[in-house]
Amino acid sequence: MIASKQLDRSRGTNYYDRVMRYYEHVVKDDITIAVAQTDVKGDRMLRPHQQEDPDLYVHIVGRESDGIIVRGAKVHTTQSIAANELIVLPYRNMVKEDADYAVAFATPVNAKGIILIPRPLREVEINMLGDEFPMGKTNVEVETLTIFDNVKVPNDRVFLAGEYDFAAPYGLTFALYHRFTAISYRAALADIILGYAKLFAEYNDVETASHIRRDIVDIITYKEYLVSSAIASAEKCIKDPNTGICIPNPIYTNVGKLTANAKYLDAVKDMIDVAGGLLADIPSTSELSNPTEERYMVKYLAGKRGTDPRVRIRLFQVAREFLSALGALLSVGMIHAEGSIEASVIELYRSYNYDISKTAALYNADLAKIDDVKKLLEWW
Fold first, then answer.
1. 174 and 156 within one domain
2. What pLDDT shows up at residue 124?
């Protein structure tokens, strides 16, 4: 809505009306949508039009009176196989030679020419080993390599078609909202990590150890940094003048997202440190169904006096699933999903307003007046 309105005001096009009609269709018919944005990219040092294979970014290969034909592939398309439709967005800024790659549209997932190749659901497959992997049974997302093999898109579902200088507003505005959702859900994920760490500290009776307290406080800091960033992003939002839609504050959003990416594995490390080596070597909870093994496990895997060994065993098992069956998904996802570390660095450096800081430094050096500082602070 935001980017198409900007484009229409600049070029006299009618993309916003198409977007709003599609929006009404989504609301009325309760359509589930997956987003396909990340192109496979090929040689990362080359622009779309410079690639040896032109299909390494999704692009327009034909224009007809009633629509366009697109070809190429996207990756990391989350929940595509469970969605009704796809919204396709540009991945990056474009130059004039990339015009055919500046394309945004919506399409049914089962449209002719769309091919979905999913990643293996190892988290689900491992559940066949027993009941000690509860998270993978209900909380696994699937991502696909999403191929567009000469897919026809009707005009009313085309939201950008060659206006290369608007590829960035379409792509980056979505990325900003995506990062805002990231710091919000990652705060909840950090809560789970914190809960495991605190429970392990209690069941192992190591709460008074100074290094354990530091581990737990590190996780608290990580979690609350994300919470604070999410709140600040919303409270200091920017209202788009053309649509009245509120946009998350890009600075607080990217600061939070950068922290979420860069510090996630530190939080996991802290949880592992608190838990101890049994996180890797705990016997299966299925052994508890055998009276002989149960007797030994309850006796020898007991923790703090007065706690239930079965609960302690279960905590180790589920936390191990968190690190093993879900580990690759979560670890890679927390570093790369919703934009990589470098993406947040680039956006922060590019969009940050340095005027207040520079003026404050100049004032500190007697090279600026206090009124200059006050004026900038009023703006902030």
1. no
2. 66
